[in-house]
Amino acid sequence: MNGDQKPIGVAVLGLGNVGSEVVRIIDESATDLAARIGAPLQLRGIGVRRVSADRGVPVELLTDNIEELVSRDDVDIVVELMGPVEPARKAILTALEQGKSVVTANKALMSVSTGELAQAAEAAHVDLYFEAAVAGAIPVIRPLTQSLAGDTVTRVAGIVNGTTNYILSAMDSTGADYGDALAEASALGYAEADPTADVEGYDAAAKAAILASIAFHTRVTADDVYREGITKVTAADFASARALGCTIKLLAICERLTSDDGHQSVSARVYPALVPLTHPLAAVNGAFNAVVVEAEAAGRLMFYGQGAGGAPTASAVMGDVVMAARNRVQGGRGPRESKYAKLPISPIGDIPTRYYVSMRVADRPGVLAAVATEFGNRSVSIAEVRQEGIDDGGEPRGARLVVVTHKATDAALSETVKALASLDVVQSVDSVIRMEGTSE
Amino acid sequence: MNGDQKPIGVAVLGLGNVGSEVVRIIDESATDLAARIGAPLQLRGIGVRRVSADRGVPVELLTDNIEELVSRDDVDIVVELMGPVEPARKAILTALEQGKSVVTANKALMSVSTGELAQAAEAAHVDLYFEAAVAGAIPVIRPLTQSLAGDTVTRVAGIVNGTTNYILSAMDSTGADYGDALAEASALGYAEADPTADVEGYDAAAKAAILASIAFHTRVTADDVYREGITKVTAADFASARALGCTIKLLAICERLTSDDGHQSVSARVYPALVPLTHPLAAVNGAFNAVVVEAEAAGRLMFYGQGAGGAPTASAVMGDVVMAARNRVQGGRGPRESKYAKLPISPIGDIPTRYYVSMRVADRPGVLAAVATEFGNRSVSIAEVRQEGIDDGGEPRGARLVVVTHKATDAALSETVKALASLDVVQSVDSVIRMEGTSE
User: Which residues bind L-homoserine (chains A, B) (predicted)?
Assistant: First the structure.
């Protein structure tokens, strides 16, 4: 290993927050990176939408001809940081077909197109790394694919979207409504101009698909992930959650399920959930991410850190770049796609969880009995009931009734909610939120 | 990849808690492991001190001839779980020289003999993995050597010894003295009959040496690690810590230091420290482990989980076994020892930290001035002072004075303590404990 080794050529696609940091690290840490890899990294070019002189890098490195850049003979590793699905997909496929190793942070792409890309990497005998696609700087892909390769993962549950966690943390700590918390997040740069991908859970669902795929050795795409966003969570829900010793978090949950007759399946789902304050994920606030992994032998592990941002994401990207470069120098490849288990995906209707149901009811005798009967009729067992008077000047005066159930399937709960809504004594069912992190 | 591949032969050395779990997983997860590796694992033999029929495994697998077992032609991977340094060292060297890949959980060995073993692995072009040597099931070696390979690690601080964490957690929650907490830990199986390696910090120091070596690309051995155990921590220290908003934890700290003239060095040290209750490590209780890694781009990451025990440690071992086996099947090797940076080790005297000093003083005017003068004379700045009366029936009546300093070097503090002890008004200096996790 020495500096006389033939350099490893790198092309970076995209020069946003992450791309700029990657370019900076390749430059400023050149000596260290060369020592760790056994050959120097050489930045061959940066693909951008429009070439201009004010991008903070030598303009001769810039090109808007992505296809040409990724096909250059002196490029060994392509770092894709353009997002979203296209034109990233095409660029990565071209790179793989040309025998380049690829590092990407593109969760949207990796959650829909993983099979196609994995096959192209396999055919070319090159690496396709994507640690930065999930939870930014926090190592989760490598621990799941390598450190836990000899164990049986049973569950992965995480807070993997910083924007929604920032909004929910603000609602929890200030009592703000969703709209106000979103406005604050936007003003501070924690939410994008169009926050749909974050607040509706699409971003978290993409990450859930990736996590479920590698945790359970089964190909899971974003379409397989059940998804609810946070836009309907109210200040009243947070108040009720607190009274129940909980907070509310948007969780990505990947679970290995075993039926009574021993058949295994996979569930991947994203939704806001009540989480007990004693659960480790309850304390993950603001723009931080955390992933809890449960495995048969390892027990419960937690990984915590910054889930987004230019520098943290660049750290994960550069870890992959160094590994891909080492493999180029020393021979060998990182782990390939592992999809041998081919477990079926469980529909959300089959998934047993606990539920919190908040409804507005008439404030008169017999209401609780009527409500409880509907739960009982569908074998949904009630764990806790809370009733509070509401005085909003309306007529007739109503009360807020909160019911927390034991574990029930989504199908049974959905039927119960439909029946509740048609009861005379129930004015409205305002919230149905799952509860996670408790065992009963 | 299919089951027709030539099997990968495995020899397991040691059949204690971890070895038994490894053997169980190789057997019970055989199908999954074969699919992940691309070839089946085949257990060729188990090295034990005495062969006997009551070990829960087929007796024909057992042998007390370790050297013969690790040299067998049909063994590809040797899993060393015997500890301590010898005979493990000799067995591993033989295995490496015979071209076997080696997986070990032996922190004592890896912290004294890493260079010798790394060279043997290098010469034979085989893998030497040791994820299980630090923090049991928690992936820390792989994240540091791979995920953070493109970043600059500045600090690793962890609770890496479950026995001492159990004892300190018990002292904190029950107010027990060290002796009682140790006795309870022993009765419950959390402390060994001879707890010296744990309570005197030798185990944590071995892990600190390993962590510092990989984090800073510098060879650090156990002898380079400054070490203090927990045997002198008192119930009074915990009471004072709590009054200061802290708890006390045995920390392993690895730090990259940069001097005023830009020279870098490494500090590796183990001692009990006051940790603010708001710090993530403060909440790590009982037999759990956690490692906080700080890196320039990634920011602060935390890894949390079970740091010991048969099954969790076996999970880490099996992850390494699968990776070593994959490399055998597909070609390639894991990361080699990286020691290019060759940073010097800073002596403890140069390390600036904050200090908590507890002393018994005469209860009369002028005491604080005299004490404060000694701190000031050595440029040790005082952040906080607390005085409590002590009524233990002794004469003359004394008081307990607790001083918390701003950052000072160990050398300056040591001189101060010496001077304090010789003051007339100071009856005794009872505790000097560092404080970590605060910035001032």
Answer: 192
Contact A322 B137 (CB under 8 A): no
Q: Chain A contact for B316, CB < 8 A?
A: yes
Q: Which of B33, B288, B315, B318 to mutate against chain A (most A CBs within 10 Å)?
A: B315
Residue B319 and residue B355 share a domain: no
Contacts across the A-B interface (CB distance below 8 Å): 189
Within a domain: A1: no
Specify the pLDDT at position A48. Answer: 95
Q: Is residue A28 part of a domain?
A: yes
Look at B35 and A341 and tell me if their CB atoms are within 8 Å.
yes
pLDDT, tens digit, 9 for 90 and up, residues B281-332: 998 998 899 999 999 999 999 999 998 889 999 999 999 999 999 999 988 8
User: What are the start-end ranges of the H helices in B29-161?
Assistant: 30-37, 66-71, 88-97, 107-112, 114-124, 141-142
ipTM over 0.90: yes
Query: Which A positions 232-271 lie with beta carbon below 8 A of chain B?
Result: none
User: Does B52 map to a domain?
Assistant: yes
**Beta strand ranges found along A30-130 (DSSP E):** 41-47, 62-63, 77-80, 101-104, 128-129
Q: Which residues contact B403 (CB under 8 A, 6 or more apart)?
A: B355, B356, B357, B359, B371, B375, B382, B384, B385
pLDDT digits (tens, 9 = 90+) for A1-53: 444 689 999 999 999 999 999 999 999 999 999 999 999 999 999 999 999 88
pLDDT of A209-236, one tens digit each? 999 999 999 999 999 999 999 999 999 9
Condensed to tens digits (0 to 9), the pLDDT of residues A257-276 reads 998 899 999 999 999 999 99
A318: helix, strand or coil: helix
B330, B362, B384: which is the final residue of a domain?
Answer: B330
Radius of gyration of the CA atoms of chain B, in A: 24
> Number of C-alpha atoms within 13 angstroms, CB side, residue A91?
32
The question of whether A339 is a catalytic residue gets the answer no
pLDDT of res. B84: 83
Domain that includes residue A293, residue range? 141-306
Both B107 and B179 in a single domain?
A: no
Q: Are residues B265 and B324 in the same domain?
A: no
Residues A203 and A82 in one domain: no
What does the DSSP assignment read for B288-315? EEEEEEEETTTEEEEEEEE-SSHHHHHH
Active-site hit among A6, A90, A100, A207? A207
Q: Are residues A145 and A294 in the same domain?
A: yes
A132, A149: one domain? no
d(CA B136, CA B125): 26
**Is-contact B401 B427, C-beta < 8 A?**
no
Where is the binding site for NADP(+), in residues of A?
Answer: 13-20, 49-50, 55, 107, 309
> B236: domain CATH number?
3.30.360.10
Q: How far is the C-alpha of B265 from the C-alpha of B343, rounded, in Å?
A: 5
Nearest CA in chain B to A337: B36
Give me the CATH number covering residue A361.
3.30.70.260
Chain A residues whose beta carbon lies within 8 Å of the beta carbon of residue B306? 298-300
List the single best residue of A22, A127, A289, A301 to mutate versus B (max B Cβ within 10 A): A301
Quote the percentage of chain B above a pLDDT of 90. 84
Give yes or no: residues A288 and A319 share one domain: no
Question: Beta-carbon neighbour count of residue B369 at 10 Å?
Answer: 9
Chain A residues whose beta carbon lies within 8 Å of the beta carbon of residue B25:
150-151, 297
Count how many domains chain B has.
3
Q: Is residue A123 domain-shared with residue A252, that is, in the same domain?
A: no
Which residue in the list B6, B100, B207, B232 is annotated as catalytic? Answer: B207
Domain boundary (A272, A306, A340) is at A306
Q: Smallest CA–CA separation between B299 and chain A, in Å?
A: 7
Q: Is residue B238 part of a domain?
A: yes
Annotated binding site of A: 13-20, 49-50, 55, 107, 192, 309
